[in-house]
Amino acid sequence: MALVKGFRGLRFNCEKSGDISEVVCPPYDIISDEQRKSYIEKNQYNIIRLELPKGDDPYKNAKTVLDDWLENGVLERDEKDSIYIYEEEFSAYGKTYKVKGCIVRVRIEEFEKGIILPHEFTLSKAKEDRFNLMKATNCNFSQIYALYSDEERKTIGKLDELSSRKPDAELTDGDGVTHRMWIISDEADVENICSDFDDRKLFIADGHHRYETALNYRNYCRENGSSKEGDAVDYQMMMLVNMEHPGLVVFPTHRIVRDLESFDREKVIDSCKEYFDVEEYQSTANIEEVLGKLYKENKKAFGMYCGGESWTLLVLRSMEAMEKLLPNVSAASQGLDVSVLHTLILEKLMGIDAENMAKQINLTYEKQIENALAAVNRGEANCAFILNPTKISEICDVSSAGEKMPQKSTYFYPKLITGLVMNKLD
Fold it and tell me: What is the pTM of this model?
């Protein structure tokens, strides 16, 4: 099954770079140009210069910066193969959570081997960008996020014991998330953790583009003779978390429908009545509460908002329609909230086909309910659909069936911070 190893992590030498809180950043794909500029203005050594390079030749610029920081000791490599225990403490849904896992090297495998499994479709443009960056720098600057099953909490118990001391790095970011990291270099401890994964599969939670890029890069290196089987490019840096961990939080990603020439609210709602129980609510203040209650009851429910104070609740009566519309996929895929919304409402009832959704011609994704509602009220959208989050068990069931969810089906919160540790592929 999964082959997991320690690695000699590449980390900031804070005596030269400045405080660790000034050189890390959120994932590159959620950072605006203005935010990028502010990170660099605060500290010229912020990792955003490597993870999201700019300029006429951005990838060459990233290599130049990386080489300079290595030469001048801004980045230094740990002396021994290590694992890096990583914990995030954060607030969500009015509660405080902690989620802990380990950052390791994992041998990458083709999906069809059934060892490492995806759950979402990816976009080619993002993969091209990450490939060019990896080709220029030969380095992982951020981790792929993956889950594993450990109902007996065998590994997390070991991680808790190894991280009972003061962390080697700790910071709280601008969103109030506290990040802690412990470096574990004892050879026996490293082997003890890594061997736990010998009989486990891994499920990619976040980082599908980077994983597929890693496979492409490995094959590229073999084809041009710069690597052979077993070399460093066969392994990628991953954060591994127990899927039964109580600190795991998944947020929904809501859908905004826009630019439909003949949108008719009443017509859409009437057509939904064939498959859904429909109920009108007079205040948007209770959308989350109403949907949350149905979520606990395992109902397929959506909030449809078309402006003003009111909204419409849609609750699927039966899975029969999904079984007819998607006869060639598993019950796990048929039963996803996003599958019901995309297949039954958006495609069948509203005429927005799968290609249209993939290209985001009439569909926009939004994580915040307030922003989705505001887009409708500003006249930028015809309507918005508010969703419940995808369950962890659903992610694993779909992956195990060898299938993938629609894009933007999951949003694991919080995102892993970039810059605590990196992996040089040599």
Answer: 0.91
